[in-house]
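Budget justification note: compute hours in this period were largely spent on complex prediction jobs such as the one shown. Inputs:
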Amino acid sequence: MPTITLTRKESQTNPKIPIEAEIISPDVFLNKSKEQIAELIIWRGNRQLPLNDLFTLDLDNDLNCKIDDLKIILEGDLANIKRIGQGITGGEILINSSIGMHVGFQMKGGKITVNGDADDFAGANMEGGEIIINGNAGHYLGGSIRGDWRGMSGGKIRVEGNVGNETGVWMRNGIIEIGGNAPMFLGMHMHRGLIIIDGNVEERAGAEMTGGVIIIKGILHKLLPSFEFKKKTNSIKLEEYGEIKGNYLELAGDFAERKQGLLYLDESKNSFHFKD
Amino acid sequence: MPGGIDIHAHIAGPKVNAGRLLRPEDHLIEHFKKTPYARSGVGHSIPSTFFTGYSYAKLGYTCAMEPAMPPLEARHTHEELMDIPIIDKGAYTLLGSNWFLLERMKEMKLNDLTAFVSWLLYSSGGYTIKLVNPGGEETWAWGKNVCSLDDKVAYFNTTPRTIIQKLAEVNERLHLPHSIHLHTNNLGVPGNYEITKETIDCVKGIKTTTSRKTNVHITHIQFSSYGGKDWGDFCSEGGEIAHYVNKNPHVSCDIGQVVFTNTTTMTADGAWEWALRGITEHLAWSPRSGSKWMNAQVELESCAGIVPYIFRRKNPVNAMQWAIGLEIMLSLKDLTRVNLTTDHPNGGPFTFYPLIISWLMSKKAREQMINRSDKAIVEKTSLKDITHEFSLSDIARVSRVSAASLLGLTNKGHLGIGADADIAIYDFKVPLNELANNPTAIENGFSDAKYTIKDGQIVYFDGQILASPVGRTFRVKPEVPDDWLANIRDALEERFQKYYTVSLNNYPVQKTYFPREELIVTKMD
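Corresponding output:
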């Protein structure tokens, strides 16, 4: 598998200046030589720099291959690097660090693995492919950029840690799996798709949702009053995901909008909502 | 060709700016990087001010008119116009629902009306009288709308018919360079072609007093040419409207052509924008709960609304709207009375003019689009039967000559002696007699002028902005006898003291807002 490793050079000046690195993508690197890649232009603050001013490059093979065979590995301090994997259509990006905002923004295919935390807007407006975050994720995970009413429309995101507010906002399709906890507005304005969370959710899950499914396996501390209890169930059948077994409470909402969304809460942990 | 003139494009003002705030995602679709001679900018349907100027220069356009300026927001509008580089510009003052006017309509004091309009046009730095859904704006403040020319305007003893007739008369008495600029009642509603025809009829007898032969300009006429009773049996009456305009030499129009793209609708017709928001609840691209939207009222004067909209080829109504615009344009005989517009950004951004030109010039291009679109075009419009193709001089007429003559800008729209040195040079890369078979060559040629020259200075060449001179601002100063003004002064002062949030002295826009002023002074007989 042709692999290219980019290691962040230690910053000589202010390390907080953000870097817009949408150029680091399999679609761009494909069929390029090491010299060509080293000369690619990257924005750092309001300055343009060649890639090799910021990264050391290490190539295994030449990159004349199919896009899905290409692998990019990123090392070093990447916390202020934004837009990695923006709009990629294939290939793999492995990030061995925490990463800045907009990772996998408008991604169409391929795979991104983050061995660290991801900042806000990870997988925003994503259309396909897979993102795996082995740390925590920021706000607007799998959501939409500012103002857009069409968020994530396909693909899959898996987060092992916690997520921020408004996860899956304006989601139109796809799957988000969360291992940790979530604060407010999980699946806000959701239209279609699936969010499964293993941990606890603070409040306002599914606010203004008009469709789609949210499954909360932990505690939902505050339930919105605009959700209606439908029934108890011991298995949830989902077309694109298969069957989830366990005792769940099924709620429909949000009644503030069209009540076509479904919210499933773990029965043993959430029955306190329905005690008088 | 002489530089292009856009007679109707929402490029500045409070609602354009509100649209920018409402749609940050629009900024992502298109952006412009800074160059040594030009600033950066963003925006697809509502571009930022600098980007607006550069985009017009790229198309070879050198003049554009902002068609809806509430007088209270005139200062804001002129601030933005000042920031738009290169092109010449002007703004039309909204007068359709001004309380002061509506009250005097009732008492029929024509001299007072004339004095007030003259004062307001000059103090707001406006160019002409703009009417948007006359009477409807004010009625909308009470949650209702006017549906016919003889409906009563809420709490005022007047009707849209009176407003249109009186203001058309005032317009002629003041000898204004442009006729009244009218956005008809019931715009966008199925079956509205009848009210459009009635509107044309109602100003028929009013004699023009300038060299211009028209006394009413029906703007974005495509949106006013719909048949049917509801959206289910929506159909085209474009042929009928075109025939009616051909028959009535006192009418001019611009098209308001629809383009299939992601755009933002914005108009001072707040009632229609609210209705449109309701329609978006049923459209696939929009959230199920309807699109985001905005409505605003300007105290005692006007209102406005904004709704993002995506015109889709496969939506039967959108497809027919596209066809209706072209149908009207291609059926009109006198091309000096029609302008090419999209009602930017309502039908689509002005950057799509080259694409529209390719549809007008090439039947092949139209057929390609008909085949890709909903079959309603074939079933319910007559576009497929129209074989007419515009020549390059026809295009020059609809995009330049007609607008200049309708606006009364004698130095524009031609390259004769005394004309401004605003010139666009296009390179089509194919012989001119083969253009009809090469729609992409037409589109590419018009969308990227080889040279754009403004006042003798090359501003755009070979894909690069080379200079950003300040454009002129056209405004009018209609003079009326002093005693007429004196007659309304007391009433005006009282109005401002009692009802307005600003004082009368702070209301008029001062000279500093017109860095390159072109004042057109008109005198009454």
